[in-house]
Amino acid sequence: MTYHLAQLNVARLLFDLEDSRIDEFRNNLDRINALAESTKGFIWRLKGDSGNATEIPVAPDPMIVANMSVWKNVDSLKAFAYETDHVEFLRKKKLWFEKPTGQYMVLWWIKEGHQPSLEEGMARLKFLEKNGPSKKAFSFRKIVEP
Description:
alpha+beta
């Protein structure tokens, strides 16, 4: 059986999405999403009608946004996250997002062809925060093989 890597990360915006203080983030969403889609090993990403996931409600708090995607393996996700222009946005995240107080990112293995739901991702994130890394949910700090 073939497995793929699913990832979810959530963050709380410092300002409303329309606020000029996050123009750089908002105005580059399409470019960075296109970069992800063109990266070797990319399979799928969560997106709404606008082409990104920022409009999809994650929690009762409308300032919380999510990014969820599926990759062929850990190496392909790492290559996108840390070896492309995406890394510049990781470096600047404190300009747009609150500092996380808990677990904000989770990885988990899915069967090839499965498209995870946001609810599934949020459940994995909560599981990781409560139980630590396991086959059910893990992070880059402790990668668990399928």
